[in-house]
Each structure stands twice: as structure tokens, then as C-alpha cells.
UniProtKB/TrEMBL annotation:
It catalyses: UMP + diphosphate = 5-phospho-alpha-D-ribose 1-diphosphate + uracil. Belongs to the purine/pyrimidine phosphoribosyltransferase family. PyrR subfamily. Residues 7-153 form the Phosphoribosyltransferase domain. The lineage of its organism: Bacteria, Bacillati, Bacillota, Clostridia, Eubacteriales. Homodimer and homohexamer; in equilibrium. This is Bifunctional protein PyrR. It holds the Pfam family Pribosyltran. Keywords: Glycosyltransferase, RNA-binding, Transcription, Transcription regulation, Transcription termination, Transferase. Its EC number is 2.4.2.9. InterPro entries: PRTase-like, PRTase_dom, PyrR, PyrR_bifunctional. PANTHER family: BIFUNCTIONAL PROTEIN PYRR (PTHR11608:SF0). One of its GO terms (molecular function) is uracil phosphoribosyltransferase activity. A motif (PRPP-binding) lies at residues 99-111. It comes from the Bacteria. It comes from Fusibacter paucivorans.
Length: 178
């Protein structure tokens, strides 16, 4: 993969996450029923950071949970003949809650659809909303994020790579040519 451009640095990521925190509070008129759920690898530290930002603003922490949706990907069979089925149980009851799914990138929307499937198997949230750091377009399903850090028009021949300190040792978003 060939490097093309850095589109967000650590400051841009931080400002976006702060704005997302404000927007989540505003849209939900507070945080009373809000639960953040990070999707697998990089959605999890992002959900924790949004939680920290909300706490700075509201002086109260919202619950944070996580989903590993590997077994629910509807194209899993394309990746492996005999997929390992991973458990993906939440620790927090979600009935009646406003769940904010958090992920780093939305592309086809298949990961989010799978995450919603996993959520619905575990309870009945009153609402599910979606926050992503980057929306790169090319949706294959009727799914649209409620909160977007940055809209990045891309070609399908490109790849968007988010790096997060907690996992990658640095914060940045770059575009690569496949
Ligand atoms: O909208 P989609 O087409 O489903 O793509 C978006 C997903 O792809 C990436 O995950 P990836 O499968 O690369 O795994 P990773 O996060 O563990 O790197 C990204 O983190 C999203 O979860
Ligand atoms: O470009 C892409 C597509 C899917 N997921 C990513 O993280 N980047």
C-alpha cells in the first residue's frame, strides 16, 4: 500500500472527539440514558475518549461497553471456511438505553449492521445511534452515521487507516493507495 496523505493529526482527532461529545449531549438532551459501545479494535479507545470528554462537559461518566462482532460479519464465510465463533456479550444491560455505537471508520456499513444485530440479540435499546471518526463513503447498506468526525470522499481503490495511541502508539488518519 502506498501512502497518499495524512488527513488528521492528533489535534484534529482530539477536536473532532470533543465536538462529537458535545453533539451527543445536545442530540440526547443530556446523557441520562446514554451508553457508549465501542466496536472491536479502534472503536473501543475512541468510545473511552468520548466518555472522558463527556465527563469533562457534564461532570458525569456514561457507561462504556464493547462489541467484538467478528462472528456476525455476513461475509465471514468469505474469509474463512470454518469461522471461529467469538462470544460478544455486553456487560451493561441495554434495555431502554440510548446506545451510541462508536467505530473508527465507516465504509460499506456491514460492520455496523453486524454490530446492530449483536446488540438486538442482547436486549431492546430504545435507540441506537452511530458515531464514527471517519466516514469514507461507499455504503452498501442503508446506514448513515449520526455523528461524524470527518467526511472523507475516497475512491474504492484507497484505504483509510486510523491510528490510535492506545493501540498504534500514535494518533493519525492517513489515506493509502491499495
Ligand atoms: O463499513 P465496513 O465496510 O464494515 O468497514 C468498516 C470497518 O472496517 C474496519 O475494520 P477492519 O475490518 O479493518 O478491522 P480492524 O478495525 O480490526 O482493523 C473499521 O475499523 C471498521 O470497523
Ligand atoms: O478504508 C477502510 C475501509 C474499511 N475499514 C477501514 O478501516 N478502512
Amino acid at each position: 500500500m502506498e501512502f497518499k496523505a495524512k488527513i488528521m493529526d492528533n489535534k484534529a482527532i482530539d477536536r473532532s472527539l470533543m465536538r462529537l461529545a458535545h453533539e451527543i449531549i445536545e442530540r440526547n438532551r443530556g446523557i441520562e440514558k446514554v451508553v457508549l459501545v465501542g466496536i472491536k479494535s479502534r472503536g473501543i479507545p475512541l468510545a473511552n475518549r468520548i466518555c472522558d470528554k463527556i465527563a469533562l462537559i457534564e461532570n458525569q461518566r456514561v457507561p462504556v461497553d464493547q462489541l467484538d462482532i467478528t462472528m456476525y460479519r455476513d461475509d465471514l464465510t468469505l474469509k474463512s471456511d470454518r469461522p471461529e465463533v467469538k462470544e460478544s456479550a455486553l456487560n451493561i444491560p441495554i434495555d431502554g438505553k440510548t446506545i451510541i455505537l462508536v467505530d473508527d471508520v465507516i465504509y460499506t456499513g456491514r460492520t455496523v449492521r453486524a454490530a446492530m444485530d449483536a446488540l438486538m440479540q442482547q436486549g431492546r435499546p430504545s435507540q441506537i445511534q452511530l458515531a464514527v471518526l471517519v466516514d469514507r463513503g461507499h455504503r452498501e447498506l442503508p446506514i448513515r452515521p449520526d455523528f461524524v468526525g470527518k467526511n472523507v470522499p475516497t475512491s474504492s481503490k484507497e484505504n483509510v487507516k486510523v491510528k490510535i495511541v492506545e493501540i498504534d502508539g500514535m494518533d493519525e488518519v492517513c489515506i493509502y493507495q491499495k
